[in-house]
Amino acid sequence: MARRPKDRPWLMRTYAGHSTAEASNALYRRNLAKGQTGLSVAFDLPTQTGYDPDHVLARGEVGRVGVPVSHLGDMRRLFEGIPLERTNTSMTINATAMWLLALYQVVAEEQGADVSLLQGTTQNDIVKEYLSRGTHVFPPVPSLRLTTDMITYTVHHLPRWNPINICSYHLQEAGATPVQEIAYAMSTAIAVLDAVFASGRVPDARRGEVVARISFFVNAGVRFVEEMCKMRAFSRIWDRVTRERYGIEDGRQRRFRYGVQVNSLGLTEAQPENNVQRIVLEMLAVTLSKDARARAVQLPAWNEALGLPRPWDQQWSLRIQQVLADESDLLEYPDLFEGSHVVEAEVASLVAESLAEMDRIEAMGGAMAAVESGYLKSELVSSHAARRARIESGEERIVGVNCYESTEPSPLTADLDTAVMTVDPANEARVAASLRAWREARDEERATAAVAALVSAAAGTGNLMEATVACARAGVTTGEWSEALRGVFGEFRAPTGVGGAPVAGGAEEGTPLAAVRAKVSRTAAELGSGRLRLLVGKPGLDGHSNGAEQIAVRARDAGFEVVYQGIRLTPEQIVDAALAEDVHCVGLSILSGSHAALVPDVLVRLREAGAGDIPVVVGGIIPGADAAALRAAGVAAVFTPKDFGITRIIGRIVDEIRTANKLDPLDPSDPLEVSA
After folding, report:
1. How many domains in the chain?
2. Which of 15, 104, 130, 564 is catalytic?
3. Do 342 and 477 belong to one domain?
4. Is 34 a catalytic site residue?
5. Same domain (yes/no): 442, 519
6. Active-site residue, selected from the candidate residues 51, 153, 169, 184
7. 6: annotated active-site residue
8. Segments forming the whole domain that contains residue 448
9. Strands (E), 205-268
10. 542 in active site
11. Domain containing residue 215: CATH number
């Protein structure tokens, strides 16, 4: 039988970057040599949130979850030996997207590239930062201006660049249902396009060019059929919106173009080898259907729930894509689901429900108004709480976590300390020293003048991209660019969504939540304190607040008075709040890997303030050796993703409060008692 011709495969990427620009450059070049067809740059949290590596909030975060890029020199080293004119680069960057694109453009110019040929994507979706990821900087209105300025600039100067990647990926990880994921992403796209066209900077005749360069970045979970139907619904709604709302007649310009990373936070620490089949199933959901196939795919590694993947782990994920594209016959056939009554019914249902939710958001004044009111965040926290309750009850089964928990020893995790990659703690000092050397060597007068021009442009109405490119050329740093705009626009603390979340699980007599409520009430009575008070704190720059929010909601439902001020706090601020609120326990949530630097700082400050008897518990992606070190330093308990039972965690927090206050232990037959 003759072989059929194959379609062109999707772009294959690996989300990567760590430690330094030099180390990340070496990783990119190795990955490209292994057959990767595009780059996906992970920036560290200081870069994403607009801080230089010597800022107090950057402590413990430099080079942890991505590469630090503080100035033009870093960007040069990041792409040394990689011809940008022939490379498709995705940059996961939002609040500081304009700055990183400016650096990228200047490096391409230095390479001699024709910037009109540059291809790639800046994520640049600030709405999902307010709702889920937490790397926002500026309030919604000026943030939308930055996005608008970038889009209009690229239309005229970088016409093949995707200036925004409407990102529903993190919405799913924050608890979004498929309907919410579609509706919130589409409402964000509408807010952006409305602002761009209202700016008057794009002639009506070029509207189609703008729409054609809007891309999306989605999440694919393990519910295979649902995810595949979701992508078909996305495509159908985008075609309708762009045709009816914006009058785009060219079908090619209305095409729904998306890249995907399959679900990372859905990967498990328990029996992590199961993550491989999860990743494969999730990839199939966005590749099997030709009419709704992803344009680019990046896969996480099997051990991301344990820590930073090694190059070999990333290679394994790349090979999964290559086997599907090159060895299977997937790319030889037309759409496999065309005409399926089951698929069509599910897609139609998703379209109808999503359009209804989009109408609700429109009636509120659009996506930005729904962010500022707290509606979108509250809905996400509520749906996430409902999902967690289903997992805890066993209604939603996760293999190796709440069912089929018995397991043989895994050779993949026989030595957990080498099963993930670690970043040298001394790296931060080296990066900060390099930054100081850069500042000393640059033309200070030119840099100062460039920042002044940026401030003047921000205070006016001109396009900020030109002034930003000038700052990049003048040697301005990431922190200086952001600080200049903070001075004009201010900063934004997004709603937490905790207050409006309903009780997620039943609290009837005999339920686990009722038992914990009784423990909380009894302990509070014995202490004579009225109510137990729990401070939930997120030190550093980690914006993944889903876990912290769920702990706060469940502790509230269990009878605690909860103090939760959101993300991005210094250890000093957390300790000050603990003392001011006279809390009985401090709970710290860190997923970025900065726990080794920040948690001991909190402990020391509590002791120095005479409050060392307040128990501190910590949750996050924390390797076993680090957990042991934290307990040795004085942490009462460490919780990692394998501790999926939030009600049990709250019960354990009560136990730690009792121990710290020398109260007698409660009945050990209590089913909520768990080991350390």
Report:
1. 3
2. 15
3. no
4. no
5. no
6. 169
7. no
8. 430-489
9. 214-220, 258-262
10. yes
11. 3.20.20.240
